[in-house]
Specification:
The chain is 57% helix and 2% strand. With 844 residues, it is mainly α. The strands form three sheets. Strands 1-2 form a two-stranded antiparallel ribbon. A hairpin with a 2-residue loop joins strand 5 (315-318) and strand 6. Helix 17 (476-496) packs antiparallel against helix 18 (501-524), helix 21 (577-590) runs antiparallel to helix 22 and helix 23 runs antiparallel to helix 24 (684-705).
Amino acid sequence: MQKKSMNPFEIHVNKEKLRVLGKKQKNDRGLPGVSRIKAIEKRKRTLLQEYKLLNKSNKFMDKRIGEKSHSMTDEDRAMARFTAVRVKTHNKKNIFNLADDEVLTHRGQTLSEIEKFDDPRSDDEESLDDVNNTGKLDKQFVEDAHFGGGILKRTGIEGAKTHRELIDQLIAESKKRKAEKQKTKEATLELTEKLDSDWKDLLPIISKSKKTEEDEVGKPKIDDYDKVMRELKFEARGTVSDRLKSEDELAKEEKEKLEQLEKERLERMKGFIDEKTSKLNHRSADDLDDDFVYDSDPEYMLSYNNEGESNVQVHAEINGKSFSGNHENSEEETPENAESSDEELETDSEDGLSDLKEQTSESEDENVNNTVNIKANESAFKNIITPDEEDVQKINNSEHEKEETNVDSLQEKIKNDLLKRKEIMENARKELPYTFSLPECYESLQKTFENQSSNHQSVIIERMIKCNHQSLAEGNKDNLGLLFAYLLQYINDLFAEASNAESIKNSFDIFKAIVPQLFDLAQVNVENSHNSILEVIKEKHGEFRRKSKVYPGFEILSFCKLISLLFPTSDFRHQIVTPTLVFIEQMLNKCKVRNKRDLSYGLFLSTLILEYTTLSKRYLPAAINFLSGILHMAVPKTGVKLLKVLPPFKSTSSLLVLVENYSLESFKSLQMDSTDLLENEIKEEYKIRVLYNTLKLLEDFYYNIKELSSSSEIFERPLRYLELIPTLNYPKEVQNYYIAMETKKPKALRLYEPKIEEIYDGKRFKVQSKKKAERDKMLHKLKKETKGALREIRRDKAFLGRVKIHQRLQSDRERKDKVKRIYAEAALQQSELNELDRQKKRKK
């Protein structure tokens, strides 16, 4: 096929002002006619269709299956449409009208091919082999009752049965046969179940095949992949769980759980023990765990309640008098026996239970009396059921040894039970209560925390929050805010009263334990927590301004640490964190360093500054200045010229100069201790620890702010001091800890390169920044695209104008044709009328 040659007059050549050799141009030649035709066709497909649908709300949509899918063939479309028609016709009305050509299958087999050898029979149906057990009317009865005349038949035989008697006989025989059939069926089912159970027991033995070693060797091994696939195949599927509970529901459940635990604790304190967990089962003296079993009726087992009365009422008649096993009746009717039982009771209690009475409380004494009354009831019970005194003597003589062993074993068992009960009660008293109410004042909170360890104090606050959650009552939110303020006051008093190593260590332990609960309280009432902490900082800052040259108390350290744990430190400005940072910087700049306490205090504040600025990457000069001052104090001042140092340090201070040699010694820990905040004397070991921690802090500060452009100038002074410290006297751990600045890249040598000048191509470019050049480039593109869009809009308007003119001309042409047609028809009608008029005139 020959390629169609283009008309040279239709080709437009774009000329260039300056011809550049080797430069390729995309738009050097153009086909305006072809481009114009393509543009018109495109507008006909898009703009013209929109114009035709202008101001029209309805449109024709082809919803036939597969018309919009270009990937479907004609056969696929026909199949899909046929399927849709079949589905539409298969509605609820004719769902049971099955076509003849449709064959129902089950597991690959048609229903006609499936053969089931079941014999489902009804309960009233029997085998027809036995005529007598058919359950139907026999032949003789049918002949007599139905076809033999019935009640009208007169046999004349003596003793003949009437119709009613025959019916009754039939009913009785039918019931008898049904009963026999039911009995046989039950026996058959029982035998079947027994056979099934026996078969299940024998099945593993039968199914187990004897495999030889050759078979085991020749058997292929199971691949790990297949094993994993089988495990995944038979893995348990997930089930639908209950909905997640809301915060209010969880708080309510926590409160109910704590209340139930507190109720159980109080019951244990009073001696009431749950039957499920208790083993204190009071039994009779005859019950010696010698395999006596009361399976017939456990209610008649001889036992006693807590008051010492028998649980079983025993009645007997002796010489015409009635007696019962009740303790009160026995005392009234047999006073002699009661007196004898009292005597035995006194002797037994003096011998076996005297030590228990001294150790147990009032509630335990009652339990002792109740359990001892068991013996009195036993003796009274035995005296009541005997007929006379002679029989009593005989029985006592024969069973005297057995009663003694029974009483001794009972006493020992009661003693052990009471000791266990006492131990449980003491443990319950020592347990921490599970429910707490919010303190009404600060003194009640102090009383609650009195003699409690740090962990117990944390648990108490946690249970206070759970039992008084804000969703459980209306005023709990404000009360929890008061609890937060009370805890702040408690921390203040705790650290203010710390005067020795044990007290300050205990204070830090308590502070560490209750911080999580303080965080939860701060989230409950945010506004109250902000105001409370802010008031504390204002108060402490006011106290600091009175003595600005001395480091304040330890409580300020605790509050500064607490603020970093409760509030975000990465914000650009925070209403609590920002003032606290300013406060810390003022303390580091103004307080003088004179002893060990001041150095430890300043290091603690420097550590807090590092913690505050880790995320925000900020630089506080006071921290670097303080650490530089510590390094300056470790430099020996031997020369006449003193090293300059910034306040509050002095140029002549040499408190941290290490005199003795510790290079060969090793230390287990070089960390700072809480006791360093109390002591004033500086020892050699403390000098090593201070220098080690100072270097570690300087390294952390360096890695935190090394991205700043002024980092080299910030650490210039600490590095100069560090170079003057003699490191030979320090241990290896300190000698290896050295801060080194990053080495700067060496400047490249100046090379003589050829100077390349740009060739002027007629376009002038301004010398401007990269950002401004990008902006000008974007403006140029915007201007170019705007001009192109306006040009296309003009062309679209021209196209629509031509379409409108064409429509107007066509409508005018159609209108003229209609007018001409109307005129022609009117002229024809007029000619016919004229012809009729002429005919009328001729007739006249």
